Amino acid sequence: MELSVRLAAVHQDAAVVEVEGALDVSTVALLEAVLAPLPGRGIRHLVLAATGLRFCDGTGFDALAGVHTALAAAGGGLLIVDPSPVLQRLSLLMRRLPRAASGAPDGPADRMPRLLCGP
Fold first, then answer.
1. Known InterPro entries for this protein (predicted)?
2. Distance (Å, whole) CA 23 – CA 31
3. Is residue 1 part of a domain?
């Protein structure tokens, strides 16, 4: 499977990244390679344009949740804009998972990025 990840815009502490293709265990390293340097550049807010994301498995979604968690710790977060139906379904499923056994606010539902769907 193929994945295209492009840093489309950077403004102050925010960036827009466009993704197309399939985000899975075989392509997640590409996403992480593009996103990992951003916090070091002062990026705290990330908009992920995901209209072209045809497929996302649990590994890919976990990577997105990890990015959101890291940005949230710095006072920012991840917003996924125009998520594909696949990503919307996966997000809904992940939000329904029970919280961590400790009851702490770090269960799956608390580390999910926000989805902003089109009209």
1. STAS_dom, STAS_dom_sf
2. 8
3. no
Handedness of CA 54, 56, 57, 59 (dihedral sign): positive
Amino acid at 56: C
Q: How many domains does the chain have?
A: 1
Q: 89 is in which domain, residue-wise?
A: 7-116
What the block records as the tokens of 109 is 């539902």
CATH number for the domain spanning 22: value is 3.30.750.24
Residue 2 counted as domain residue: no
Residue by residue, pLDDT tens for the chain (119 residues) are 799 999 999 999 999 999 999 999 999 999 999 998 999 899 999 999 998 999 998 899 889 988 988 899 999 999 988 888 888 887 777 766 554 433 444 444 455 566 665 54
